[in-house]
Input
Amino acid sequence: MKAHTPRFLLIGFGAVGQGLVPLLVQALKIAPSRITAWAADLEGAAVAQAVGIRLQWQTLTPDNHASLLAAHLRPGDVLLNLAVEVSSFDLIAWCQQHDVLYLDTSIEPWPGDIPIKQFLMEVI
Output
């Protein structure tokens, strides 16, 4: 049985994502064709094009995140959350349920959700 070669999905493509992608490609030797970035804008298009990854305008919400992730990720893939105002808790839960690896740069709620301090107190 052939091993699954993971795909990488970056949520957010600001300064962190734009700086990380060349490291993924050059240092970790991940094929650019295996990397997709979703962002609320396309300001990083020049960087994405230079590195050879796909950049798509995609806004995640509490209502659409599960179906969008399910359409793009499968077990063994990697989700890197580099965005603000995208619920870390919901993404972690989704990834655990679908055997997708997860890495986050912060802990964020959805816009308008409870403040981080209260969120952390409820989780802890």
Observations:
- The first helix runs from residue 15 to 26.
- Helices lie at 15-26, 45-51, 65-72, 88-97, 116-123.
